[in-house]
Each structure stands twice: as structure tokens, then as C-alpha cells.
Amino acid sequence: MTETKFTDTNLGQQQCFYYTIQASNSLGSGDIAESEKFIAGSAYDIPVTFNFADQLSSEAWTNLGEWAWSAGVQTGDERMITSTAQRENNWLISPDVKLEAGKTYKIRTTVKTDYGPNGATSHFKIAIGKGKNADAMTKVIREETDYSPNEYYYIETFEDFVTIDESGTYNYGIDVSSITGGDAFSLMGVSIENVNEVDMSVTGVDGLDEAVCNENNTCKVQLYNNASKTAENYKVKIARVDNDGNYVVLGETTDVPAIEPFKSAEVTVTYVPDVEDQIDVVGMVEIDGDQNASNNISEPYSILVLPEGMAPFNVTVTDENTLGEYTRTPMSFVVNESMSQSLYLADEIGMEGKIQRMAFEYKGNDITSVLGPVNVKIYMCNTDKDIYSSETDDIPLEEMQQVYEGEVTINPGTNIMSFILSDEFEYDKTRQRTSV
Fold first, then answer.
1. Are 222 and 297 in contact (CB under 8 A)?
2. C-alpha torsion sign, points 218, 224, 225, 230
3. Torsions phi, psi of 15, nearest 5?
4. What stretch of H or E contains 58?
5. What distance in Å separates the CA atoms of residue 332 and residue 327, rounded to the nearest whole number?
6. What pairing do the DSSP bridges indicate for beta strands 62-63 and 122-129?
7. Which of 344, 331, 431, 337 is nearest to 388 (CA)?
8. How far apart are CA 196 and CA 163, in angstroms?
């Protein structure tokens, strides 16, 4: 350019800018200078996510108090931090955002505190308004007094919902008015997204244990209403996933509760499997006008469908008084191979005859999708052993009968891993104990 002024018409959405300037002529180029930083650009459309990945992005925010950008100790730990003991109007206010009248928005605020377990507290509030000053922050959507998590360096995300009365340009703000105990309060990020008027989702399915072909089986489908209006008059289904990825409905119900906005519910569904096999099934929800179809179907759950007429389990070895949890029994998923042995006493089994099937109840803990399949072998024997005295006191496999070889998958939630024994085991109750 040859002029002494410059007009930039491609700023995009609002952020902090500066220019580098260098003069040149036939004799060469001068030193490089930087302009003053300034905030410019258009308001952000929804959805929008703000973070503080670099200092320049933090300078797009209006700092009315004692906030400072911090790079943290690793990537992803960048944030705006304040440690003021007490101060009025310690606001940090976002760039402009366009919101529409009559719509509901979800605002997610992620914060971090350091010394909650030491008794440190923070008092903060979150608001929106039209303008980048304290007086403009008129709609308070959250206020936390004596906020004090019980973990050090704790990160928490708050979800708030707000309905807009008038279309226009708005700003998000957070005000931390007091901090005690020498703590530091950090804003890690903010996101704003539109909330649909109709949006139901399936969050999981419980009780998908083994099922019996051509007979009634039940499970519980967990639902969440992501919408701004109460959900009514919807259907909940259980379906089998066929080899082509199509859904074959096995059962459905319209006997469902009304679910208020941003609330959960559980619906019992009776379903009738149509094939004998290891199959994948899903939970489904259908409601007229659903504006987000991507969350209407659960992840597939793998279950074993037993032959028609197969008897249910008739002996429970453990009960609420003896039930325990252990992550390495009957198998471990943190190593490539594992083996365990368990003793079951005669008074626990309480029967005699042949053992045809067995199952272990388990919780999927934090898993969110199906694990496996995993190769499994099961051995049994009658024994007079009272207890395993050490880790090396197991019964040699050559002294036991192999009763099963196959595969098992692990589903999220509370379920059972079930095995139909390929060789029935003759249980001798006079021996008092059985090892598995």
C-alpha cells in the first residue's frame, strides 16, 4: 500500500487485533512497528466456545477487575486467573454474542480453584447483559457463595439455562467478588449453545442381561430431556441391530412419564427377542418434532439370547449381605491374560444336581461402549479346600473339569456376564465346596 491509512473489511468475528507496520522505499525497509491492540469484529453466532489458548484471545475479553492470563503448566491449562481478596465489580466480560428472543440457551462455565480442602472459599456470580460494563450485567443466572470444593486444583463445569426476551447483542460476564484462604480462582472456558424446544435422548439401558427367545424380557431405558419444554407423548423402544445395520423393533411402550426440561427419567420396556444368538440391541426414543435425531439411539449392547423355554437362574450364591466388588474377579481387563479361582460353599449353593449355567453380576464403572469380545475358559471341581492360603494355593487346572470355552463381552452399566456350560458339571454337595 502507498497510503497512510488502511481500512480492514475482513475482521470476522470479534477478537483482539493489532497490526505490524513496516515502511519501505527504493532505499530499503525501515523497522517494524506494532499498532496498539484493539477489539473489533462482528458478534459471534451460536454455538460459540471461548477459551484462553493464548494471551491474545484473552485480550478479546473486557477486564474490569484484577484478572490476568496464565499459560498454566501444560497445554489445555491456559486460563484467566484472579486472586483478589475482596473487590467490587471484579468482572470479566466476553466479546459480543448474538442471541434471539424466545430461545433458550445453555451456558457452560468451567472454573478451577486450588485450595478448597484448606477451607478456601470463593464468591462469584455469572450474568448476561447488553454491554461490557458492570451495570449492563443485569440478568444473573448463577451465584455461588462460599464455593469450596473438597479437592485440590479442582475443575468444575456449571450448566445454566437462560431464555432471552429480546433479540440483540449480548455479553457473558463473571464476577468474583471475594476469595479467602489465599486461593486462586480461574475461568477455563465458556460455551453457549441453543436449546431446542423438542430434544429427547437415550443415555443408557440397564438390565440388558441375557434374554430368552420368543418370551417377554424387560429392561430399563434411561432418558434425558435436553429441551426447553416438558416432553410428553413419546415412544421408547428396544431394537435388535441386524447384519445390515437396520433396527428390528423387539418391543416398545407409550406408558411413559412426562419429563421436565433438563431432567432424567427411566422407562421399563418389555421386549421379545426373535433369534437365538449373541445379538446387539439398542434403546430408542421417538417424539414428534424432535430437533436433534443424533441422540435418539443408545450405543449397542451385546446380549445372549437363550433358546425358547430355557429356565432362568434358580440359585443366587451371593446376596446383599455377602455381595462384594473386585475388579480382578472373575477376570481382569487391565492385562492380556488373567486367571482367578473362587470357592463356593455348599450352604451358599443350597442344591444338588448338575450345574448347566452360571453368571456374574458386574458394573461397567466408567466404560461407555462395549468391551470385547474376550476369550474365556471356565473350569470347575468339587473340593475339600477351606480357603486359599496364598496366591499360589490355587487348584491345578489338570485337577479340574473344563466346562466352558467361548467369548464374553462387557456392556456399560449394571449387567451380568452369562455362560451356558458346554459340559454340565455334576455338583457333589457332600464335598461342601466347589471351586470355579
1. no
2. positive
3. -165, 180
4. helix 55-58
5. 7
6. unpaired
7. 344
8. 12
**125-146: average pLDDT:** 96
What one-character-per-residue DSSP string does 103-128 give?
-EEEEEEEEEEEEGGGT--EEEEEEE
Supply 237's cell numbers.
Answer: 423402544
CA distance 86 to 142: 19
Q: SS3 of 164, please?
A: coil
How far lies 432's CA from each of 145, 346, 348, 381, 427, in Å? Answer: 61, 5, 10, 11, 10
Cite the DSSP H helix spans in 263-322.
Answer: none
Task: Name the E strands within 136-197.
Answer: 139-147, 152-163, 168-179, 185-195
Residue with cell 410428553: 232
DSSP letter for 46, please.
S
Backbone φ and ψ of 330, nearest 5°? -85, -10
- Nearest 5°: the CA angle 14, 42, 105 is 85
Are 259 and 230 spatial neighbours (Cβ–Cβ below 8 Å)? Answer: yes
User: Residue 371 in contact with residue 410, Cβ under 8 Å?
Assistant: yes
CA–CA distances in Å: residue 331 to residues 150, 409, 414: 34, 12, 16
Give the model confidence (pLDDT) of 168-227 as tens digits. 999 999 999 999 988 999 999 999 999 999 999 999 999 887 888 999 999 999 999 999
d(CA 257, CA 220): 13
The grid cell for 226 is: 435436553
Question: Residue 323's pLDDT is what?
Answer: 57
Q: Distance (Å, rounded) from C-alpha 389 to C-alpha 387?
A: 6
Q: How many other C-beta atoms lie within 10 A of the C-beta of residue 168? A: 14
Rounded to 10 degrees, what is the CA torsion of 259, 265, 266, 267? Answer: 0
What type of residue sits at position 296? Answer: N
For residues 350, 354, 356, 357, the Cα torsion angle rounded to the nearest 10 degrees is 20
CA distances from 90 to 50, 56, 67, 132, 341 (A): 19, 20, 8, 12, 62
CA dihedral 225→227→228→233, nearest 10 degrees, is -70
Closest CA relative to residue 342, chosen from 317, 374, 373, 375: 317
Q: Mind listing the pLDDT tens digit for each residue in 417-427?
A: 888 888 888 88
The pTM of this model reads: 0.61
Mean pLDDT of 33-50: 82
Q: What CA–CA distance (Å, rounded) separates 297 from 200?
A: 10
Q: How far apart are CA 278 and CA 274, in angstroms?
A: 12
Give me 38's grid cell.
484493539
Rounded Cα gap, residues 270 and 115, in angstroms: 50
